[in-house]
Amino acid sequence: MAIKIYVDQGHGASVNAGAEGFGLYEQDITYMVGAYLSDILSSDYRFEVRTSRASIDANVGYNNSSSLRIRTSEANEWPADYFISIHCNANTNPNINGTEAYVYSSASSAYYLGESIVSEIVRRTGTKNNGVYQNPSLYVLRNTSMPAVLVELAYITNYEDSLKLRYDQYQFAYGIYAGLLDYLGLSPL
Ligand SMILES: [Zn+2]
What's the gap in Å between 186 CA and the centre of ligand 1? Predict the structure, then answer.
């Protein structure tokens, strides 16, 4: 039985749009990294994958709340074994940088999956390791019935991170895949 991964490409083209920085739009980066991750997982027979967005121009839902509700319902109804939500971080302080992840509870398997994903992204892209935080208030973490990790790839508002988000999208995707393999105790094919 293949392990079912729901890849949630955060935000939408215009509905529930994300952060901006250095000419980049979060919703475009999350779409691309999720599309690469979907390609990587699809070529590994041990996984089955679904994504939340059909194209870079796609929206999910018609407002913020329906956008989030549709993603979690799709994952719950499938049902997925793991839910990975892809985002870019933003801060008013342009010096803040790095990769981090959020999980519903630090006493959970999702926490360890988050740690693996963050360290494999950091290994491949050279971002700073900001670790994993418990954040039970995030909708997609609160409303999913399987281990869920929200990954903040890097800060779109930090110049060095923005270059990585622009040019190293495949490496971010591969880092998430490698983190999954590491957590599951699987070897690369
Ligand atoms: Zn976001």
Answer: 29
Q: How far is the CA of 129 from the centre of ligand 1 (A)?
A: 18
Task: Read off the pLDDT band of 50 (50, 70, 90).
Answer: very high
Choose the CATH number for 3-184 among 3.90.480.20, 3.40.630.40, 1.20.1250.20, 3.40.50.1970.
3.40.630.40
Q: How far is the CA of 11 from the centre of ligand 1 (A)?
A: 6
Q: Among candidates 103, 111, 117, 115, which has minimal Cα distance to 178?
A: 117
